[in-house]
TrEMBL record:
Gene Ontology terms for molecular function: acyltransferase activity, transferring groups other than amino-acyl groups
Record keywords: Transferase
Domain N-acetyltransferase: residue ranges: 1-130
Any one Pfam family match given in the protein's UniProt record, by short name: Acetyltransf_7
Organism encoding this protein: Pseudomonas kielensis
ATP-binding among keywords: no
Superkingdom per UniProt: Bacteria
Protein name from the UniProt record: GNAT family N-acetyltransferase
InterPro entries according to UniProt: Acyl_CoA_acyltransferase, GNAT_dom
Length: 135
């Protein structure tokens, strides 16, 4: 298995994250106010965003190149991104991902900040979604 380097993407390089998302036909978008974390081999093979929200962070945009799935890349990327985070972290995901996130320290049914609770309600109108949190 190739070596993967996990690092926070420099602010000036945020367009590379959107290029990664587009290359994999994802509707996800990196935003400038987020911490952007990537897993790199020769190029970006995984990414996630940590967006400031209320008194915590919203983990969004976790995507791993399909050729690299099943190799622990997502878990390792989250571990690096969250290693020094002391405030709460929330995410919204499909119920099928509950076990994956529970195995990485998240619990279902957290108390959400108002803005994120509104997003969950809006997203749930078109697809099944659950909220998870840690911290």
């Amino acid at each position: 298995m190739p070596h993967t380097q996990y690092t926070q993407l420099d602010d000036a390089l945020w367009p590379l994250m959107n290029k990664f998302y587009r290359r994999h036909q994802s509707s996800m978008k990196a935003v400038r106010d987020a911490q952007l974390w990537v897993g790199k081999r020769d190029e970006i093979v995984a990414g996630l965003c940590l967006r400031p929200m209320a008194e915590g962070l919203w983990l969004t945009g976790l995507l791993v190149d399909p050729a690299c799935r099943g190799q622990g890349v997502a878990a390792a990327l989250m571990a690096h991104a969250l290693a020094t985070v002391t405030q709460p972290v929330w995410l919204l995901c499909h119920p099928d991902l509950r076990e994956f996130y529970q195995g990485n320290g998240f619990s279902a049914g957290p108390q959400l900040p108002y803005a994120l609770a509104e997003r969950l309600l809006r997203y749930s109108r078109s697809k099944p979604m659950i909220a998870m949190g840690r911290g």
